[in-house]
Structure formats: structure tokens, C-alpha cells
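I have been asked to look over a protein record a colleague put together. This is what I was given:
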Amino acid sequence: MGEEFLRRYYELSSEKESFLCVGLDPVPPSVRDRFVIPRHLIEEHGLREGVRRFSLEIVEAVAPYTPMIKVNAWYVLPLLPFEEVGEIVDAVKEAGCLALLDAKITDIGSTNAVSLHWIEEMGFDAVTLSPFPGYQGGTDVVYRWAEDTGKGVFVLCRMSNPGARDYQSRKVEEEPLYRLIARDAAMHGADGFVVGCTAEEELGEVREIIGEERLILAPGLGPQGGNPETAFRLGANRRGEGLIVSASRSIDYAYTVLGWPEERYAEAAAEQARRQRDRLNKIRRLVMGGERS
């Protein structure tokens, strides 16, 4: 378990009074119709520069309200060169947040080692990991890297999409696969476990397996329909900590959600992040009886 990464997360979470994670998912208008980068940015600056500007302004806008920003690798890496991704990571850190690359690393050890080299060069503090390759000659490289560098590892355990139950809830050795993943990943030293807000029963089971200090990253707040109060009751530890609730589209594209002009996209993202943080804190106070231990 990466004590340094966990210490930094808990410090930032306490300082900002927030357990909200904001996902950075920049999508050009050419990809889909809704939840997209404002068209004027692409028209005025071109695709690459428009994505870069959007990303940097969203980071600056939401940073006061979150201890960690999750950069989705497959939204960013195809569009921006190495140096500009590093610029975004630098902006995340300078704004007082941890930078998590949602890359879902899932390959043999030699390939993972190369991926981790470039992830570290870009400056990320943590990565997401798929356990599918198994430990020996697969994920062992990632755990050793994290231990050597003080980085964090978040393991996919029970995802938020409806089809996750097809495999992740299937029984292996008389228990659901997600429980086996949680137990093995905790043994190998994972810092965090990805369990969707929509997987309510599983949140409580995973918390019981991993103990008090490790983190649960719970995506699915917003369009996916996750219930944050239920997620908190089941996924937080006894201190009311350890759960990170993640939102991406509802914050990145808050100008759409709030009905604001697209020119105010950064201001809308800040407002939505503040609202989400305050809503989560209200839930924590309610569940913890009005005060935190």
C-alpha cells in the first residue's frame, strides 16, 4: 500500500473539505452531439489548441473544489502531444490537486513497464489498473513501480456500467469475481478500488474487504445515475473518509447542464463542482450525525 500517496490524498481532501474527484474528459463536437467542448474554441483555435485550452481552463476552474483530477487517457492522449499532456498535469499539481491517469493499464509486464515510464515522465501521481492479466508477469510491474515511486494504483473492481455484472459479478471459487479482485489487489498493495456509485451492494462488500485506510473511487455520479448518499453510507470508512465520488460530464460540460452560454463553460464548471462538493459534504454531515469524528 502506498502510504505516501494515501497521506497526500487525505491531506488534500481535508484541506479542501472535499471527496469529489473531477474527471477531465475533453470531447470535440465532431465526436458526439452533447457534452462537448464549446464549438467556438475549436473554430477559433483549431482542434489541438482548443482541447488544450479547454482542459487547462477546466482544471483551473474546478481545482478549489477537488483533491484529485482524473484525466481519461483515451480522451486526451489521441489529441495532445506528450509535452501538452505534461502541461495539463503540471497545472493540476500547481492548483493543489493530485493527477490520476485513467488508463486502465492491462497488458503483459514488458508493455506495462513502457507505459509506466511515459506516465511517470508526464508527471501523473496515480494510474488505474485492470487486473485481467493477473499478477505474475502482468500487474506485478505496476505494483512495484508504485512502491518504488510513491505513486498510487486504483484497481478496477466493479464498474458502473450495467454490463459490468456479466463478468465482474460472476462467481469464481464460490464468490463474485469483484470480491476476489478486491482481496488479491489489497494483498498486492493497491491504494484504491474502482467501484461504481451504481453498484451499491458491492460498495459495502469491498469496503469490508479492503479495510479502513484504502480508497474507493466511485464513478457514476451524474448522467449514470449513481446515488451519492447510498454510496457514502456503504463505501466510506468509519471516520466518514476513504470514499472518492467521481463526476466528469456533469462538471466538464456544466454549461449544458445549467443552461448557461457556452462562453461561460469554465465558470459553469466551477459552479457545478462547488455544488457537487457541497452536496457531498451535506450528505457526509447527515450520515455522520452532524459532525466528523
Observations:
- The chain has one domain: 3-286.
- The longest helix spans residues 265-287.
